[in-house]
């Protein structure tokens, strides 16, 4: 494998010194880029992009051709796991993800297979290897998965949900059944992330998008416990380098010390948490990733720079910060504004590091 030319993202995840704060954007390959929309057109649809390793590689690299980003993220989706379990993922135009089958009874849960990634999701493993080859050491590649709880919400609801009525009904009425589902998902996610690491992923992120919908107690029982299991089951190394793990619970700002105790290297923050306050809470146990409100990218360039400056000032001096948005970049953002954001991070952060 070729030498890594820009390792500031991996260094920051391990809280090692860097020259400037590294930056990437959740959903950095996506609909706000015209070149992404053109590739999707050629593939036919979104799943056509995900299942073709050459096209998945092409769209992964698109944002890196425009911007000096410090990391690439595999182009795929968290819902490939339930799809591989046989639920039949599809996307209705403008409606988000949907499953042909849902999970609600004991028989449904018993019938779900544990995913064998090399066999059931070869297109993801191949995409990781293809992207690593094409990146040629330019920046590290991030692999990812959904958290068991977040995946379970889509599997039980059959798609996106506002109130998670069915999922919470199952969790509160038949907790032992919910635990069986989450246990199967945790084994599948661990194997899936390890397959991505073996294929070349240099860091991994677990997206717990809906953990924040749970109560304090239910979060520990139904989401955190399973992420902790996954973290302890991951291969720690790739090419002789540590593979850091990032946990991102959207809405999880109150649970940072509990998240830091899982053994993860870095916690992702949404924009509702003050990053400086978060840093005082977790101390030197973990790095922090985030956390500008993605909607700031709709504002004028001067305002974008001011928001970046405020977050850098809040975090303060020293290593352990990876700049990101507090959630994914949205389709209506002007690509030039994403450029302003990334440039501002590099330019304004130099003063916070020893150079
Ligand atoms: O960050 C990246 O650039 C990597 C690619 C990536 C996608 N989805 C591509 C995608 C990643 C990391 C995801 C994760 C994902 N997928 C999450 C967790 C992160 C988050 O945003 O909270 C969730 C909840 C999903 C499920 C999912 N996939 C939804 C709800 C949707 C529809 C949302 C929408 O914006 O319409 C998807 C589809 C999806 N995944 C798209 C992309 C680029 C849009 C599909 C398209 O091109 O039409």
Write the layout of secondary structure elements.
Blueprint: H1 8-13, H2 34-43, H3 46-50, H4 53-66, E1 72-73, H5 80-87, E2 89-92, E3 96-99, H6 106-111, H7 117-120, H8 122-135, E4 141-146, H9 148-157, H10 165-173, H11 175-199, E5 203-208, H12 216-233, E6 237-238, E7 241-242, E8 245-249, H13 256-260, E9 266-268, H14 275-282, E10 287-292, H15 301-315, E11 321-325, H16 335-349
Parallel strand pairs: 1-4, 4-5, 5-8, 8-9, 9-10, 10-11
Antiparallel strand pairs: 2-3, 6-7
Bound molecules: coproporphyrinogen III (CP3).
Notes on the protein architecture:
The chain has a single domain, classed as TIM Barrel (Alpha-Beta Barrel). The chain is built from 16 helices and eleven strands. The longest helix is centred in the middle third of the chain and has 25 residues. Bound molecules: coproporphyrinogen III.
Which descriptors would you attach to this protein?
single chain; 355 residues; TIM Barrel; seven-stranded parallel sheet; two-stranded antiparallel ribbon; 13% strand; binds coproporphyrinogen III; cytoplasm; EC 4.1.1.37
